[in-house]
Amino acid sequence: MISTSDLISSDTIVALATSSGTTGAIAVIRLSGDRAIDIANAVFKGKDLLKQETHTLHFGTIRDEEVIVDEVLISLFKGPNSYTKEHVVEISTHNSKYIIDQVISLLIRHGARAAKAGEFTLRAFLNGGLDLSQAEAVADLIASENKASHEIAMNQMRGGISSELQGMREQLINFTALLELELDFGEEDVEFADRSEFMQLSTTLKAHLTKLIASFEYGNAIKHGVPVAIIGKPNAGKSTLLNALLNEERAIVSDIAGTTRDTIEEAITIEGVTFRFIDTAGLRDTDDAIEAIGVARAKEKVAAAKILLYLYDAQNNTADEVIEQVKSFRREGLTAILVRNKIDLEGGHFPNEMDDRIREELFEPGYVAEIIAISAKDANSVAALTNSLVLQIRGMVSDDQQVITNIRHVEALKQALQSMEDVDRGFDLGISGDLLASHLRDALRHIGTITGQVDVDRDILGTIFGKFCIGK
Ligand code: GDP
User: Fold this and answer.
1) Rounded to two decimals, what is the model's pTM?
2) Is 284 close to ligand 1, i.e. is its CB under 6 Å away?
3) Where found in the cell (predicted)?
4) Is the CB of 345 under 6 A from ligand 1?
């Protein structure tokens, strides 16, 4: 774990940068610090690394005295033109645990120290190579498993969020400066800061902050997978649908009502968005103790879900039943998609009156999105459903919107918004300029903690960088 002393450490650090224990051909060992090139040079036989240009590649051997440990390629990056802004040497060795251990202990014997988790990225941050939100995005990028989370992390790492926040900070700083200038003039009662202009700025900033805060719901869903609860009466076809979605037989499918006793969770990625499907026990009143637990769990799962897929079919459900059950799950933040299953059994005769009633009773903005008719046994018709799922999620943010994925960021934004509201209230109440300026400074500070422009608590740095793996 990163400690306070690591924040000022000038040691040269070393770690395996590639993942250990894999069967890949090559491993990369990374050194960073003032002595990185010296230390590498002391164990390398080939060209004299001290005389080489930055961003060059060198073939040679790593030797422990006269014993050749490995044939390697060395990449040289002279500070400040490196990830950490220090001298960095990357040694590509053959990927043998024995070789890696030998090379690292040899480098340690020559003066390097084993790096802690996140210490390379911490140095990149401390030396100004990355701001804090970019450093956090590096961890997200490494963890990203699908296109959508990769896109967001890449944008954040390349400074998308930082530049947006910087824009807001500059506007606030300008205004605060004018307000503070007024205070310097004290008694003279001058107004440099145009109040109506400020009210406009404040409204814009608050809208901006609110939008960013709202994007977290999407960002979080993308990062951790969108939880989708599949609910319906026993035999509605929930397991069959899950299997069709997963395209393999993992859930138990059976004609006996109540076979799917436990909940089963499976993640699949559709068009770059990961959905976590939850299969649940059928919804019905039951005396069966195990089943009752299953039903209770179904309700819990819906409580944790972002999307509810409610399955029914014209043979086994009445419109009233569907309406009542779907209504019972209604909650802020939950979107329901109604899925009329088994249309192959309708013989081309769709009971439109039933759906019309359901539509009339249930459709309202923000809850029930649509009714989709499918046959869970037919892959083509299931595609209509997956399209709808993706649309629901993609529709949560506009294309050019910055997306917040980090709980620390969203908390800071909420506090900044609170401070801006304090400013507005202060204006309404006609509070003194210095109090207004102090609320503005609060807002600035909260925004600044996201990128680390203002001092961030050392414990927080420890937590952020501690989440990285060693070597990053
Ligand atoms: P669950 O209790 O909701 O999980 O329902 P199951 O997935 O176990 O399905 C119950 C029965 O309905 C099984 O015999 C399925 O083969 C059948 N079934 C599911 N979907 C369809 C469908 O679209 N068409 C037809 N004809 N049968 C289906």
Assistant:
1) 0.74
2) no
3) Cytoplasm
4) yes
